[in-house]
Acyl-CoA dehydrogenase
Amino acid sequence: MAVDLAQDAHVQDLAERTARFVREVVVPVEEAHGGVLPSDGERVRLQDAARAAGVFAPHAAPEFGGHGLDMCGRAAVFTEAGYSLLGPIALNIAAPDEGNIHLLERIASEDQKVRYLAPLAAGDVRSCFAMTEPSPGAGSDPDALSTTATRVDGGWRIDGRKWFITGADGAAFAIVMARTSGVPGDRGGATMFLVDADNPGMTIGRHIPTLDESLYGGHLEVEFSDCRVTDDAVLGEVDEGYRYAQVRLGPARLTHCMRWLGIARRAQDIAVAWAAERQVFGSRLADLGMAQAMIADNEIDIAAARGLILHACWELDQGRPAGMEVSIAKTFTAEAVWRVVDRALQLNGGRGVSGDVLLGRFLREVRPFRIYDGPSETHRWSIARRAVARATR
Ligand SMILES: Cc1cc2nc3c(=O)[nH]c(=O)nc-3n(C[C@H](O)[C@H](O)[C@H](O)COP(=O)(O)OP(=O)(O)OC[C@H]3O[C@@H](n4cnc5c(N)ncnc54)[C@H](O)[C@@H]3O)c2cc1C
């Protein structure tokens, strides 16, 4: 089937304005603070600037103040936003809020949209998505889900422990996956609940120290103990949580790819500029074969990742599940982005690991992407199973 990846004029214009905004307004803040947002006040300031520039919330529906881009449109704009570690925060398209906005637009009731989606899309509040649990609970295998939600008078009682919950510190609410039927190890049924941060049954615990620091709000342990919620906290239907997780995760995996592809392009720009300037052994670094190989391999990785992302986006935009295409794009991009940043750092020599350029920071930020949104091994396992099933059906 033919694949049409042409972007319309509105998307192209938004992508160009986003690129300008990120380079002129966001990159200077990022460079001044080593790639890490210094305060919530700075988040608000950058988001105000993005609103003024007309580039805020490109993914959200127009009734929630956004541009309503489809997945292919997001690929163009999010990659430009991802050129800086702080670009996605400025545009309100950082994880996990961006994925939660996508999910709430599709699954939430009208009341839930007013209460949770509207302030989230506007950037007035932050949120988190609580799925992963310490061993032996859910991680790459979602069937291990151990957090339970049991029916009580007037609603539900949630009990369990989560960890690595990005942005939980300061979030106004959590979308929590809890088991509502079956036992850990079989799929059974899971349900998503909207839990307000001031619920006395939800406790935000330790900030887990990690390699990365740019995903705002950190990664936290969260405990649910006798956490009571009413029926209107159920997101969608009871026992449909695994299906909704796919509604969120397929697009969210790709939007992570788009943002990190932006950082790969930035790293390559830094490396090429340096290689063109630096003189070694009587010539420009850029004229030496092994340096050229690294520059060329970066171009190849960037182009291939972009193509795989766009293909998977196009499949999703056609209304198809695109599980295979998303897994391929996610695995390749997570590994390609790492290779690109690593080569860029190498080309910069000692300067590459110094604080004078942000390549060391980029390397730390992109490494966990080979683990979250499904580790590479889980995706390869799933790709191989689909390939064998296709060949033997
Ligand atoms: C920075 C960061 C942010 C995160 N943010 C969130 C968040 O906001 N919300 C949330 O719910 N979770 C979040 N997570 C958790 C993340 O989704 C999990 O870490 C991920 O799903 C892997 O689960 P796990 O850590 O339990 O690893 P495990 O499931 O224990 O897997 C360990 C390793 O086993 C290997 N493996 C897995 N599957 C296979 C297979 N089929 N074949 C062979 N080997 C395999 C892989 O190498 C894998 O890394 C975050 C994680 C990180 C690192």
Observations:
- The beta strands are 127-130, 148-152, 155-166, 173-181, 189-196, 202-207, 219-230, 234-235, 279-280, 283-284.
